[in-house]
Amino acid sequence: MIIKEITNPRPKRNNDKQCIDCGKEPVVERKRCKECALIFNRERVKQYHKKDKPRYGIIKCTICGEDMIKNRPDQLYHGKCRFEGKPKTGKYNEIKRSKEANMIARQIILDLGFKLNLNIVVHHIDENPNNNILSNLMILSRSNHGKIHQFLNKQWITLRKINTENLDEKWYDIRNQLTNTWLELIKLPIIQLNKEIIEIDENKIYIFKE
Asked: What pLDDT does 84 receive?
């Protein structure tokens, strides 16, 4: 057997390279160690999205009064300040669910025989997840559900900004009036139910007769 001599052996990897950021951790093929690469990539993603994100100037948050970047034309407050000071009627993530993992309100509607797809939401009119009587429930699309909460939150901020006295105590009645106002503004068919089984249409809003 003839063994050929290898004249150009494969060069060994340089294991003495150091991370270009921290200069401490040794690296083999990468420029950065795992920790520095993670930080670098996070900042790069932030800068990328920040570059393409529309901005509408600097305003003062109507809740905390601090300067903030306005990301939407109608933005009035920080996202973190959105629910600050608003009367809380219960936390949805602490509400018990049915065996089918549904919110109690949704399960009640399903038990009545209504078929709800994932784009249909059961809304609590008084924003209290513990109040599941039929007259307090509204069936609507997920999109409209987000719109009604956005509308109520914006009205809360507006009223709070003009220093309405005893707003916490008045909010329950005001919220009901604002809900009716929103139903008029949304210009969608409002269907009153009396436990009769009908097919749910995402382009309509359903409430139960008292």
From this structure: 61
